[in-house]
Amino acid sequence: MCGSALGLPPAAFVRLRSCRPGPAAFLRAAWVLSLVLGLGRSENSRCASSHAVSCSECLALGPDCGWCVHEDFISGGPRSERCDIVSNLISKGCPVDSIEYPSVHVTIPSENEVNTQVTPGEVSIQLRPGAAANFMLKIHPLKKYPVDLYYLVDVSASMHNNIEKLNSVGNDLSRKMAFFSRDFRLGFGSYVDKTVSPYISIHPERIHNQCSDYNLDCMPPHGYIHVLSLTENITEFERAVHRQKISGNIDTPEGGFDAMLQAAVCESHIGWRKEAKRLLLVMTDQTSHLALDSKLAGIVVPNDGNCHLRNNVYVKSTTMEHPSLGQLSEKLIDNNINVIFAVQGKQFHWYKDLLPLLPGTIAGEIESKAANLNNLVVEAYQKLISEVKVQVESKVPGVYFNVTAICPDGARKLGMEGCSNVTSSDEVLFNVTVTMEKCSVTGGKNYAIIKPIGFNETSKIHIHQNCGCECEASRGGAAKCAEEAPLDSTCPQCQESQCHQEEAQSPSQGCKAHEDQPVCSGRGVCVCGKCLCHKMKLGKVYGKYCEKDDFSCPYHHGSLCAGHGECEAGRCQCFSGWEGDRCQCPSAAAQHCVNSKGQVCSGRGTCVCGRCECSDPRSIGRFCEHCPTCPTACSENWNCVQCLHPHNLSQAILDQCRTSCASMEQPYVEQASECFSSPSYLRIFFIIFIVTFLIGLLKILIIRQVILQWNSSKIKSSSDYRVSASKKDKLILQSVCTRAVTYRREKPEEIKLDISKLNAHETFSLFFSPAG
Predict the structure, then answer these.
(1) Domains of the chain in sequence order
(2) Tens of pLDDT, residues 419-428
């Protein structure tokens, strides 16, 4: 086809060499000339002044440049004259059918169309560097969809009243949804948080009942449990909810995003249907943990975004991090999941702020005991099906998409903004423009996906990159192309032809670091004996065998491998002059670990960042030099130590010294004097024993002296009393009249006393009071 493509000037889509010479050749040349004469001087200058020496190099300059296949169409002219705009090449005398000028056009296959909501389902686009093409995408919502609604409920203790409300929502919700859906199914799952500290209490008495503070019997905490797959049996749903017990945790945020990702990607477990509208209802009253929060529990492995349900239990809860918002959004869109956040309390605004980051989600506030839950679900569903938005997932480097929505009311909006208030009788149009900035490294055919959010249909866009010339179409043409430009220039098909021959002899041999390792470390593809690494959302993958990346190694002060190394197979490979597991330590720091004897950490540890880490827990000190309980060289070699001081040794010991200790190392001989100068542990023991004994004896003497003083003071007080009494008697006697007086004592009356009724004071007075 030598004609045009949709929405661009016809001159941009003519591949002149694809038109076979015929009677109308001159007419075509004149037609092309008339179309391209209007091109600006800037295009003329860019093509002609580029000094391009090959066809591919010329075409890469822009969509208006052409290449004349005839080398000598200008006698004596330079090769760069063969690259120019088409009108100039024709005026210079290049035959029309000898001009390389790849076309740009859009092909929409009319047969085998299976989509009913998103059309066209497939589009094929021929592009060249700098060119653009466009087409229209139509989206027509259905009147009634099958609906799969999965309840994902926070079952922490504070949600107790809301869970009770779920027992009665099934039948009522099913009746209300009948107006909007011809096929309605319900499912159920529960979540709490990661089952490690500090998220839950790991005390033995609370680990199986986290909500003892509520005086409730709770089930053990869990990350996520899939309870009931999607079913039409409403009674079965209500029974599953009725059996659900609450659980609990310590901190305020919950593990909701962990559970949401598993509910989205575990398609077969949940029972999501391809043709249904998929709704994930998340009920909670608290925020959710985000990525990196789990580092508090020592969990550092990034979430891989895959399904990890075993016996309906999420088994990676304690070993993988929470997903990031970007990762969660990607998985929800990939699996056509619309999310409804049903939130109670003040945390509603937290989820409302997340909506721009999670396309296809809605947040609603539930009342006390979830009284308005059913109405919330119905209203959210109506809003979701009335919004039409698209997202582009491009796998073609250097190719860009610009999408504009044409809404039923005539408004034009960006594709991600989309249209609202769309009814089942409306049709939304999207004007899609595809531009190729340059040819990708791999070249060839790739594709992109345009995905309406929440729809189960997509449009696949096949991109054919016209980066080469027709001289490269056959073996002879490839040889001619090789003559025109060396193999290391921009003639990719020539290189591809050669590399295919090499791969046939030894496929993928140059893409493995070792024979037992996967091709390109499992993170790339092998092309022409070289690894082309995959693009990953976590970061950059690079290296000869795609063995390096910038995300899987530890960070130090915010920099991967402290900025002093490269990440390879999850471990930091430090640059010269640096060491440590994070490349955070200068190699010169090892000098700070050498003691006065020239030993590194006294031979009892390793040097880490200029500090000794003792390998023997009994060792202490800056250089691990102190180890009181370690066996010393003196004790181990005592029989030989005494040989260094042979005075007063028997002949038998001297003979042993000559035979067994002749090979003692010189360094030890130099340090052997320490064995004799070292303190006697027996002497130290006796000194400590004697000091302890003397201190105890001193205490006993002091106590004895205190007791004696106390007794003496008591005796003295008693004698003082007697002395004072005698003085009183003398004083009284001095005042008595000297006249003798005789008294007659009558026999006193007998007094009967019941001593048992007297109190202690009376009894004492009775028996110990002075006579008279």
Answers:
(1) 55-100 (3.30.1680.10), 105-141+389-465 (2.60.40.1510), 147-386 (3.40.50.410)
(2) 988 888 888 9
